[in-house]
Amino acid sequence: MSPTDTTKPAKVAKKSPALKTSAAALNKAAAPNKAAAPKKTAASKKPKAAAAKKPRVMAAPKMSSSQSLDVDDHKVTVGKSFSDNAKMTMRNINVFYGDKQAIYDVNIDIAKNEVIAMIGPSGCGKSTFLRTLNRMNDTVEGCRVEGEICMDGEDLYAPKLDVVELRARVGMVFQKPNPFPKSIYENVAYGPKIHGLADTRVDLDEIVENSLRKASLWEEVKERLHQPGTGLSGGQQQRLCIARAIAVSPEVILMDEPCSALDPIATAKIEELIEELSQNFTIAIVTHSMQQAARVSHRTAYFHLGKLIEVNPTEQVFTMPEHQLTEAYITGRFG
Amino acid sequence: MSKPVDHLNKIKHSLRRRNRAEARFRWYGRVAVFIGLAAVAVLFGDIISKGHGAFQATYINLSVAYNQDLIGVDNLTDPDELAMGNWQALPKAALRAQFPEVSGRSDKRKLSGLLSSGAGYDLKDRLLANPLLLGETESIWLLADDDIDTYYKSWLAGDAYAARLTDKQIIWIEQLHQQGQIRLQLNTNLFTRGDSREPEQAGIRGAVMGSLLTLVLTLMLSFPIGVSAAIYLEEFAPKNRWTDFIEVNINNLAAVPSIIFGLLGLAIFINFFHVPRSVPIVGGLVLTLMTLPTIIITSRAAIKSVPPSIRQAALGMGASKYQTVLHHVLPLALPGMLTGAIIGMAQALGETAPLLMIGMVAFIVDIPGSFTDPATVLPVQIFLWADSPERAFIEKTSAAIMVLLTFLIIMNTSAVWLRKRLERRW
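ok -> structure tokens follow
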């Protein structure tokens, strides 16, 4: 093991004291489960991964074996990646940007009406993965997706499938609030208009109001529907973008770090909103904030360098992660 | 303890150096801006000082008798008779009545040389407008000849230019001046008439109309083509060797000397497609070729400056590529495109060389009324006048330059205004 490998985690911890304290808290929470964890994994069907992680515990200041944290050894996702009640199924997904591979052999199901969080260090491919779900990667020059992605059994990458229809069924909320430079009303009405969802002006008004209500923005903007959406605060803009996405009644909503540009109060509102929306929609959310993933999601998927390391119920991921890498990440040793 | 102090001194020392460099740089900038402004000021000052005289013309007051026998016209509604009428006899008679002592053939000719050769036709127009004047006498201001105009203006300015006048003519002018029968008046001819060999009768209306017709055609062709090309290249075209090749060639086209476009227009539009010469159609086509690269390049820059987040938002909503472009990208890029188009048009307005090649340099008196009428354009008119030997054309040339500059300033100002006005923030 090279000296840089051993010093890196310590450096990261120093850089972000907030993460350090939260990591410490998580450490404490995780500690009692340490004994239970090996038992669980030993029983699982992935002996190799389990073996790789078993000997390492948090208390050890240095890793005695570099193998456990080496992602190259990782072959199979641990945890519960599959669901009986799947909305979307992804099998053997590989994504390439030109010659560079960004996603390696990902297999996962997204269940109906669940909130699934994707976490992982920067550049681990979680956003790329999210974008394969509504084929936003199509717009990226040189991006190639291999494997099978199905929604309700329908292949999303079938040649005859129209991406326009797909994106009406799989909505997206972006990292930076990006309302159109048009009025609040026009922002929400845009989707229903282009898809011809409203026959009359009254219908359209109703859709706009309902969407804004669902995004809990109605009370704040009902007096100024015809003012520019760009004049709202950051948090309001992001809720406007959510209202815009749900105005076309999608089945799945993808959120790419929706709160990264927002303050804590706006973030809390969005998180509350995600919880409400999960009653009607299936939501996949990418986040950098582990606390956020812990608060809003039902399941959490951990990505590392383009590989899906672990998928488990959120509670389990944050209390007794199955994989060494997941544990290292959530305790703040890197990322 | 000496070390931190030393450190601080070093920072202070380097700070002084940096501040000096910054101050120097500011001065370079100010000097550069000053040189630029001074050049513009000198240019404008020179042109205005030379050209302002052209906005006034010398007029001579005479009492004109609309003598039916003298003209030889009985029926003012008969065009044939009107055409045969001896209209020049009217101002001649009026001048002789003013100066009865003049005798001798040569002197008489010099005397009638005081007035513009167009004075008789001005009287004809006046008579046709008021037929009741026939047989009456009225006091009227008549346009003076260009030599008289030049002399009178320079004489008023205290630096008389008499090279083209005889002593007798100078005496007559002085007499007229003493009697208050010669004066400067607003030169409406400059704005209402077409070109003429007689400087005092020459106007820029024909050239302005020619420029307008040519530019309208250029705009109608180059804006839609340029914008479509820019949108396709920027939004739809795959990025490959072909599009790179096209981009290089568009940039090349923008740098091709304009006279080449003139030759191209001559070879293709006139010789091959047999478009008539000297008409705004062929001028518009040639200027379109010239303006296209400018519009494509500025439009592409405008499209590029639309934030990708807006495109993603629209695509993420399920808008098709076409809807994304039409609903979101175009409205945001439009100010930049319009600015580019106006700047391209301003360039086209000032373009001379390619139009020389396609015959728009012809001497055209009639004011063009359609795209197929022979026409010339403002810069070519300036070129023609600057080339004319008559001294009076000097100030005409400067006046035409002033008009051209006014149009350019209006266009460029509106480009800036449009950009400020339509610019959206996101």
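Chain B touches chain A at residues 239, 307, 309-320, 323, 327-328, 331-332, 424-426 (CB under 8 Å).
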